Structures
1.
Amino acid sequence: MIDVVMPQMGESIVEGTLTKWLKKPGERVERDEPLFEISTDKVDSEIPAPAAGTLAEVLVEEGKTVSINTIVARIASGEQAAASPPKPAPAPEPVKPVTVAPATAVTAPAPALMPAAAAAPTPVSIGPLSPLVRKMAREYNIDLSLLKGTGAGGRITKQDIEAYMSAQGARTMAAAAPAAPAAPAPAEEITPLARAVPAKARVEQMSTMRSKIAEHMIFSLRTSAHVTTVHKTDITRVARLRDKIKGQFQERYGFSLTYLPFVARAAAEALRTFPIVNASIEGNSIIYHNEINIGIAVALDGGSGLIVPVIRNADERNVVGLQRAIVDLASRARSRRLKPDEVQGGTFSITNFGSFGSLFATPVINQPQVAILGVGAVEKMPVVIDDAIAIRSVCYLALTFDHRLIDGALADQFTSKVKSVLENWSDQVL
Amino acid sequence: MRSCPARDLGRMDFAGAYALQQRLVALRKQGRIPDQLLFVEHPHVITMGRNGRAEHLLADEHLLARAGIAFHSTDRGGDVTYHGPGQIVAYPIFDLREWKRDVAAYVRALEEAVIAALADFSINASRLEGCTGVWTGGAKICAIGVHLSRWVSSHGLALNVDTDLSYFRYIIPCGLTKPVTSMRDLGAGAPRDKVIARLAVHFSRVFDIEVNWSRAGCLEPEEFVEETIA
């Protein structure tokens, strides 16, 4: 066995980060062939194999930083290679919901009799898959290697998956879910769960999204000192403007005009006036964000979850631009076509529970932000103006803020600013 | 002193320059050509280093496309960065075994060459501990990201001369929430070729090479071989 070490890439350099393995355990390497990549101080370097042979063992996983001369792998040369089956990398990467891939082959106990080449992590052969089949497998956590394809050339079809699912039933589906590759686990996991639940209840695995939401909500409540302040806002001017132009707006832009972009516009202006509301906390530092990136909470159909896509540089958009962004992000959120970076980088959030009839609520802050604005339903109400009663369109704006950073007075000044922008909306401005 | 042919490729898209670099690296590794120093200006492009984090890119493909910005993932070190008109990009294809087998020394040397060149234009720039690149007044003026393959370098540095800095708002450069600046923003704008000339002078001193200017324009690597072997 030949040890492969983290090379010293310079006099002052004492450690390196292993960024990428270019070979997998069991694969053949030639001497001087790039074996892995490391990163040190903005320099990425390919490191060649010190000898020819079979990569027998990988001791340092990707992403780990180790000091120089640490043994990162072993190469078995010639005879040795054939005798000892390759060992998998030490800590497996986070388990992916779909277990179609090499993982299954690697973790399966490699029979000692099997020659090295055969034990190598060749993916289970399941042939080409259509995007629909992939998607179904992902959504329902189906190990495709368990299916027999009936399509052309043995391909797995949608019908195969449906047949498999109806054969399995809901309970086994739950058991087969995320932790899949480690074979003995599911049985142990499901037993206590089943015992704890009354006989007539239905047991269902949380979706990844649901468990993330759960985690995030509790994390936020634990992190921030949540306080909510509510301001009644006379939104009549905006309501009139909207009523006047919504027909031609729909015709011209192809989507309808709601109250939300007006609120987003007002919030962006208030965020510019009070940058601390557009900040976040990191340790003992306050990070003031240069950009105003407003997240818009979107409820997914059927209560299946909540996602907060982000309008970048919201302060640079007018009402039309904001409405366009909201329509686009919300529709792609509902069809699950958002890209990861579209739900990141928000500096403030807005949640529009008014669209479900709520007058006001106390939203939970979207970490690491420090405030979230909730918009209640717009309703016509009798309002006293100069000792006369008038009928006005009114809504409640609820700002939940992190009292660690934002004082009550400032939170109210901020909300007053949002309110004042909305109440004094020029009927010329969109 | 080792001879080092240098070229100003002018405006060249990132993908083209990347392919050219890769071919030159291969030739350099085979010892068929000496060290090379390339200068280039890219059309708007955002590139992601091997260790780049998606969240440091603040715009999606559509937004970038609408803004006329290309996007590439690369094998250089470092995080996300922007290249565009008004920026001098230098790609040294150096075999560091003939200089120092030391990645840190290499990066510090790139910084030194840039700092010295900026000083020639009365800009007081310096290093910032723990933040590779060249900085002035708390803002980054030059980004650095390097790839090494068997000690042969590729990628390099990007110096903002009169870059439109508003393009940086699509990214968190190198994952740092620090501002960027340019020579022009500092009141010391200068023509591109003058800056390149000073950079070459300081490269020559810092890396102990003799920079030989070859005719401008983009050449096929085969021409590099012929020219430099002859």
2.
Amino acid sequence: MSDVKFSKEHEWLKIDGDIATIGITKHATEMLGDIVFVELPDLGANVEKDGNAGVVESTKAASDVYTPISGEVVENNQAIVDDPAKINSDPENEAWFFKLKIKDKAELETLMNKEEYDKFAKESGN
Amino acid sequence: MENLKTALYNLHLKHGAKFVPFAGYQMPIQYSEGIIDEHKYTRTNAGLFDVSHMGQLFIKGENELTDGLEKIFPLDLKNILLNQSKYSFLMNEDACIHDDLIITKVKGGYNIILNAACKNQDYEIIKKLLSNKYEMILNSDLSLVAIQGPKSADILKEIIIGPEKLNFMNGNWFKYKDESIYITRSGYTGEDGYEISISNKKVEELTENLLLKGVKLIGLGARDTLRLEAGLCLYGHDIDLETTPIEANLKWAISKKRLENGGFMGFDKIDSQIKLGTKRLRVGIAPEDRIIAREKTKIYNIDNEIIGEITSGTFGPSVQKPITLGYVQTKYSDLDTKVLLEVRGKKYPAKICKLPFYKKSYVKGAN
């Protein structure tokens, strides 16, 4: 089983060798409400840790998506662009956002495991 | 100051409402199913909205009051029928809009439904314009619930006999248990439906009964997507003290007869704007992509010059595309004019389009 990490901005990462698959957590989707639009980073783009890496919009508002680690975008999930409702129905599996070629594995150390994240999400309430 | 709660607050809580502060009240923005499901349920079935935060003003008076109100509102009140409702607005001398409202002629006076954020100020303005001559009651003992959607009539009929015979924009008194309640066939979603004014004491019981018959609670989030699909203005966003009814494309709500002779607040400005035109107009704008342009989004012409601003924008769950209202310079207001919307620093193509985005289905001929 691959290693799953979480960020304070409510993203999850699944790490498989040099590649990290990134999406937003179920908790994040519950806060956002029904998602109706998503914008993903371009293929080949180099994104920086905690930098902007897309946008999700609910019927209510737009929210930025951040990347928890740096890297090069090697794949993005067109299926959620075509049907953003997938993000609400299966945020932590099918509705991943993009895959990064990890630039610096040391950055992973700053992230939380599932237990830590669940506690964080519960306490922060946002 | 702590936010006020409506009489249905505990019921909202029980049904998983998420609350937001709105015009001094804690109001449900959505329930557990979410805005899109709530929106669609209203379009296909029947939804119930707690709009008790809105002002319910009763002004007591007879013919002299009608004359007084005609000096304020651009309506032919002398010729409206008992229990008939009209959409209108409270304007200042410059025809700028203090509030939009629904006024109904009732026995012994007029009922006026006001926006929550404006109601206290409206009360003072109207009182002054009527020279403090009439009894005016902004009634906080009454709740207001709207039931909206194609199944509204059939469902309400199971609990209260009679409203199914009302025509759109008409009301009457009906019996619910031992209470006389005032119901109008109206609403702000583009659907058939009713607004029910009932005592704070009885509103929860009536609501529970409606829920048992298959109505679902709908929050302010879906109320906003529904009204926007129907092309209807939201005060404080699409209309405000900087806009006139002519700029807002609401001329239809001004009585033709009153336009001939004037004598109401803001007439000179309205008359001149009708004759000379306005610099800007409210229009519907359809983005070509799935991009959502929110309030304050800048609108450009194809030469990249700013020509206006979006005042409401969201994704329309029934029309399945982004929908926006905004003001553009009048020369760009023709249907199909190409414009650009700037979202997150990029410009996206859009077109001026027809309103509403979603076709209204009001019942005109119940009788």
